[in-house]
Amino acid sequence: MIDLHRTLAHLHQTQTSISLSTTDLCFLLALRTRADRESLASFEEEILIDVFLQICELTEPGAENPRKRATHAIQRLRDQRFLARVDGAGFVRAGEYAMTRLAAAIVDFFLAEEALTRESLTLLTKTLLSHLAALKKAANQATQPEDWKREIIEPLRITVGDLVGGIERRQRGLDAQQEEIRERIGTLLKRDWFAAVDTCEQLLEDTTTTLRELNEVLLQDTSHLQALLQDIEQLAADANAPEAEAATRHVMEQVDRVAAWGTARQRTWSEYYQYVQSYLRNVVRLDPNRAVSQRLRDQLATFLAQPFGLVVADAPSIRLLRELEAHVERPPVTRPRQDREPPLEELPADSLPMALESHVRHALAEGARSLAEVLARVLPHVPPEERFRATGRVAALVSTEARVQAPHERTWTLVPGQLVVEDWSLQVPRSSS
Question: pTM for the full model?
């Protein structure tokens, strides 16, 4: 397993970066094409310079010192590990160079058109099933650690790993193809609304069918693959072969990732399919204003090829003689303005609260020690119609001026004004008395 933290630390420590210009990328693509055409395993320095000169002539015509630029480009690609020197002559003579895995991966991304199809996926999964069945048979017969290493572990890591890697590589190609289809649909809808409807629907249907077929193959074959891998893992555990167990679990994780990819892509494309269909149905087909403007835009675009014009008849308007009617303008209905706010009345200030406070303090000072005694001295100074309200105010004032002591069973006492109140015992502080 790759130590991720160590790799990240090394990249950060060495400040590794990749920088490829358009000329450099075209140079690598041309090298790969020439190697395939002439079956070259490596390139002599003169071949590299010759290929670079041809690419420079195409991408940067008229550039100065092309051979010097070729030398710098070769060195730059060597520094970034795109080219590796494979001869042992050192600096004595011109050497031979080969493309590294990094360069091959970048070139394959631009050259290879591998996209996952039902046929390729079926072929890869069936091949993988046959290899795993053979590995299970070999695991049943393995007795020595060397047998496990030679017959099971190495094939799991190399052959089976390459097959699963081939599926994943084609999955990435299909992802790029789907992204290209989405961009194409967006461009078609922006450029030519109505003419793009049929094309967009056809692209959607084709991609949906492809994903559905792939998902059916994955659901059918991944269960068989996982069953075979679990059997091999169990045999490795029984034989006490931890390295074989680890290799089997790694392949199982790859197979799980392949199956999860199919489910995720099916769900994502289904959401995109519904969105585009809803857009075509609700916006494109049911928008008459946009329909008229789009047809007018199409006609204007083809005006020079097929000129058109508008022909009208210059006829006078029809005169209709009607009887003259006298219209009497009636005055609008109004009502006289009036002041909606009633006039304010001047009322005398209510002096009862201040008088009550004075009478209560005077009664407490004269020795009243219960609520009934205070009311008996205060209510005679209050008008009869105000005595009920004044009783509540007196009780509130008494509670603030004296300490109230109320037993559990309080007596009801008659006070002036034909009122009956629950009596309180009062304890007046010295300062108040």
Answer: 0.44
